[in-house]
Design brief:
The chain is built from four helices and three strands, in the order H-H-E-H-E-H-E. Strands 1-2-3 form a three-stranded parallel β-sheet, covered by helices on one side. The protein starts with a helix and ends in an 11-residue tail after the last strand.
């Protein structure tokens, strides 16, 4: 995670490859809201913020990943939020 910590602190940070970068530029995220379910450490959500997304939310169940996401967000200086979402029971269990 050492290299990621350095990279995320740079303006315009993105973990996306060129194909995804080109697609995101065509979409034009400036001023839009984005959410990533299963955000892990939040690097993709932070990348979306660098593309101009105004309101960014990462959701994950793992407290460890969310702690990493919050730390990356702090280092980046972005205003991305990360939170935990727990299902009362799996949505596929037929309840």
């Amino acid at each position: 995670m050492g290299q990621l910590l350095q990279d995320v602190s740079k303006p315009g940070f993105s973990c996306f490859d060129q194909t995804m970068t080109d697609a995101l530029r065509r979409i034009d995220l400036r001023g839009k809201s984005v959410v990533q379910v299963g955000c892990n450490n939040g690097r993709e959500v932070l990348s979306l913020a660098s593309f101009g997304a105004e309101r960014c939310q990462g959701i994950d169940q793992a407290e460890g990943f969310l702690a990493q996401a919050k730390e990356l967000n702090r280092i980046s200086g972005q205003s991305v939020s990360a939170g935990q979402f727990l299902f009362p029971h799996p949505p596929f269990c037929g309840h």
